[in-house]
Amino acid sequence: MLFAVTMTVNIPHDLDPEVRADTVAREKAYAQELQRAGTWRHLWRIAGTYSNLSVFDVPDGDALNDVIWGLPLFPYMDIEVTALATHPSAI
User: 3: burial class by Cβ within 10 Å (0-12, 13-18, 19+)?
Assistant: First the structure.
């Protein structure tokens, strides 16, 4: 099942720089692991923001929830999820 997910990151400005760097590094490693596995199918930066638009391929909403909650930056994110369906005019 495909889901479009918009994630906006709001890391507090007063977060310890070492904690921030570690969290961002763990986020990158996790995201790349999911991409290699085919779970995180697409990842695009939304220009001019600390946001992305991603497409996840997971069995269901529960699996997506597990993936999202596993993101190291999850505590600092605003997330919007949209379930996707095949469009009859798509080629």
Answer: buried
Tens digits of residue pLDDT in 13-60: 999 999 999 999 999 999 999 999 999 999 999 999 999 999 999 999
Q: 85: pLDDT confidence band, cut at 50, 70 and 90?
A: very high
Dihedral sign from CA coordinates of 22, 25, 29, 35? positive
Give the CA-trace dihedral at 38, 41, 47, 50, to 10 degrees. Answer: -50
Nearest to 42 by CA among 88, 2, 91: 2
Task: Compute φ and ψ for 79, nearest 5 degrees.
Answer: -130, 135
Pure H helices in 1-91 = 17-37, 61-69
